[in-house]
Amino acid sequence: MVFLNETGVMKIVLLTAKFSQKGGGVATVSRLLVRGLRARNHQVMVLTSEEGLGEPTAGIISRPSPLDLIWQIYTCDAVIMQGCILKLGWPLLLVRRKAILVRHIFELRKAFPVSWLENRCVLATVSRYMASHESIPCRILPNPYDNDYFYNKSSLRDRDFIFVGRLIEQKGLMILLKAFVVLSKDGDCSLTIIGEGSQKEIGEDYVRKIGLEDRVDFLGHQDAPQVANQMRRHKVVVVPSIWEEPFGLVVLEGLACGCRVVAANRGGIPEGLNGLGILYEAEDVADLARALREQLSESVLMPEKQALCQHLEWHQPANVAMEYENLLLKN
């Protein structure tokens, strides 16, 4: 059991490979979870493999030494591992502590120490889809989105479609661009691409060759406030992933900003959407073009407000932190 002190506070160590704003989805989840746990008065120390992110006095230890790892885990009440990171979590093989291991990606191979480490943790995943692929029962812990930045407000939506994510093959950028070409034959429409990656130059070259530079904007990397502001300018967020996404945080962010969402029916994405948007057959250019065309119709219905609010509330940092807290206390 985890024992709270007289003030009802736990000292929690959170282990994560990445924690910066450029660290990807797991880093975003980790930052928001820390915010939620601290708002519930818990003491949280972050240990991360990234360099130069902070000092112990700020609650962050970058690239901790073996002594740091052992001491922080030895003196804490509970450990949360965002991803199976043996590099940081190995002291749990020596020190018994209440621990949650949250799986964000599929682990194809598990070395013996990793399996041993898992046996000392409560295993959780970020979606029912991921849990269905685990060999042992898992808890579901929702991913949080940043409701400080991603929210709806009255604004002029002068742009049509927006994509936000890493520009890599798995995220389906070229599928989206090909569908946009089909759609653009029907009339004027616009597309904004936010992100960096190996597919950026390929995508830009493709847009130039088809002569749609005036309709497609590549904005590169944007931080969370900038992304949120861009979403509020757009009507539709498109999530064209071709791989089995564990969840798809951008779906929540789009819904929170008041956008319609068109997303690939793959992996955990349907759970993130929760029936509040349109799913199409992943990798099917024609089906994506059809879905995008429908979303430009003036008669398209927006998600039911109560269902949308309930879904977003479930994924707000404070409520996600409470789910983690409850899981720690029950096991």
Spatial arrangement of strands, main beta sheet: 3-2-1-4-5-6-7
Summarize model confidence as the mean pLDDT.
Answer: 90
- Estimate the helix proportion, in percent: 25-40%
What is the makeup of the main sheet?
7 strands, parallel
Low-confidence stretches: none
By helix and strand content, what is the structural category?
Answer: alpha/beta
> What overall geometry do the principal axes of the alpha carbons give?
elongated
Gap between N and C termini, in Å? 6 Å
H/E order of the elements? EHEEHEHEHEHEEHEHEHEHEHEHHH
Radius of gyration: 21 Å
* SS field, number of helical segments: 13
Oligomer designation: single chain
According to DSSP, the number of beta strands is 13
Features:
331 residues; alpha/beta; 7-stranded parallel β-sheet; 6-stranded parallel β-sheet; 13 helices; 18% strand; elongated
Structure description:
This protein is of the alpha/beta class and 331 residues long. It has 13 helices and 13 strands. The strands form two sheets. The protein has a seven-stranded parallel sheet, with helices on both faces. A six-stranded parallel sheet has the order 10-9-8-11-12-13, sandwiched between helices. Helix 1 (25-39) crosses helix 13 (317-330). The longest helix is centred in the N-terminal third of the chain and has 15 residues, at 25-39. The model has no long low-confidence stretch (mean pLDDT 90).
Q: What is the topological layout?
A:
Blueprint (H helix, E strand, L loop, with lengths): L10 E6 L8 H15 L3 E6 L11 E3 L3 H9 L3 E5 L3 H4 L8 E6 L8 H7 L3 E4 L2 H4 L7 E2 L18 E6 L8 H12 L6 E4 L5 H11 L5 E5 L3 H8 L2 E6 L9 H8 L3 E5 L4 H5 L4 E3 L4 H11 L9 H10 L2 H14 L1
Parallel strand pairs: 1-2, 1-4, 2-3, 4-5, 5-6, 6-7, 8-9, 8-11, 9-10, 11-12, 12-13
Helix pairs in contact: 1-13, 6-7, 6-11
